[in-house]
Amino acid sequence: MPMKARVSTFGLLAGTALAITTIVGLFVVPADAAQGDVQRIMYVHVPSAWLAYLAFLVTFVSSVLYLWRRELRFDRLAIAAAEIGLVLTGITIVTGAIWGKATWGKWWDWDPRLTTTAILFVVYAGYLLVRQSLGDRYRRARLAAVYGIVAFVNVPIVHFSVLWWRGLHQAPTVIRPGDPSIDHTLLFELLASLLSFTLVFIWALRRRTALEAGRDAADLTLGPGT
Amino acid sequence: MNRPRTATFVGLGLIVMAFVGLIAISLTNALVYYVTPTELQTRSITSSVRLYGIVEPGSVRWDSPSATLTFRITDGTTEMLVESQSLPTGLFRDGIGVILDGRSTAPGTFLADEVLVKHSAVYQPLRSGETVPPGLLDTLRAGTP
First vs last Cα of chain B: how many Å apart? Predict the structure, then answer.
């Protein structure tokens, strides 16, 4: 099925926002006084991690909705979000490794935050594998929904890992009680970057869900209007 | 289609709680990521261990002939003298947290095979015209003949 190669207004907006925050993050805001330029990795690393959480939350909520309503559109949203969340987790791990080498002195360490993030990645890779292994469309949706609900427990574990256990990774800078321990110019760029990543996330989620809907529409074993 | 919804959700809830519980228990008991100097001394651990402490300001020395870095760390109660031939990153400085891989060679001294610098999670911008100052280690190494 040939897809129409067109750029949506929303996609254009998201891309422009990302380009602007990238330029601002690299060239306009000052570098961190202690770390220097390597701190700028934060503008990719932190939004990627937060949006991976959001993506897996979308998978969680739509999995619950699927089990409740048994409508395939919720399952399509679940797979779309899980796939994007997996990519974002991968970006988080890779950017974190680069920053870790420069700051800590090590690419990787079995610190609780890093370990739980690696588990998160593997668990959602497993989600995609489980889906692939199930032929029947409704059985796939049902089991994937159960998986998508249970797997979400990893997200709070990853987030609180830096508070619950001793480790190498620093504690939260922004999502914590009190004023964020980051200068407000840098915080502004971080939030701007978060906004543009969110727009790209929504754009990707819509495109990926549409792709899944196209697949279901082409599936002759399914009834019309699923 | 009739579905036992309540049973499903109770079952799922139990699985989730068991999962969280298992992870919490395993990580708190089995995986203590590092010990503090006080714990190291009271338990007199002599095997390979990971140690965390704050670099005492003014304690860092670089011995050029032996390429050895020495400094003191503290957890607020116990101090420890650290010796290392592995060099930390440029973020290493007075008052920063370090995680050391190594072992205690004598009471109060620690031989580190690896010095990792823990970030403080505090971010301040450079003022215009400023550049990042050279790392403490670079300064010390440049200062020794």
Answer: 84
Residues B94 and B111 in one domain: yes
Chain B residues in contact with chain A using a Cβ-Cβ cutoff of 8 Å: 1, 5, 8, 12, 15-16, 19-20, 23-24, 27-28, 31-34, 52, 88-91, 93, 99, 114-128, 130, 132
Flag if A153 and B20 touch (Cβ within 8 Å).
Answer: yes
For residue A220, give both structure tokens. 């002759």
- Say yes or no: A126 contacts chain B, CB-CB below 8 A: no
Do B12 and A31 make contact, defined as CB atoms within 8 angstroms?
no
Distance (Å) from the C-alpha of residue B36 to the closest C-alpha of chain A? 11
Q: How far is A152 from chain B (nearest CA, A)?
A: 9
Residue-number span of the structural domain to which B137 is assigned = 37-121+133-143
Note the ipTM here.
Answer: 0.84
Tokens of residue A170, six digits: 């620093």
Q: What is the pLDDT of residues A9-26, one digit of tens each?
A: 999 999 999 999 999 999
Number of domains in chain B: 2
Q: How far apart are CA A28 and CA A18, in angstroms?
A: 14
Same domain, yes or no, for B46 and B62? yes
Give A44's contacts (C-beta < 8 A, 6+ positions apart): A91, A95, A193
Task: Calculate mean pLDDT across residues A87-98.
Answer: 98
Q: What pLDDT digit, counting tens, does each position of A100-128 carry?
A: 999 999 999 989 999 999 999 999 999 99
Asked whether A116 and A154 are in contact (CB, 8 A), the reply is yes
- What is the mean pLDDT of the segment spanning A178-186? 90
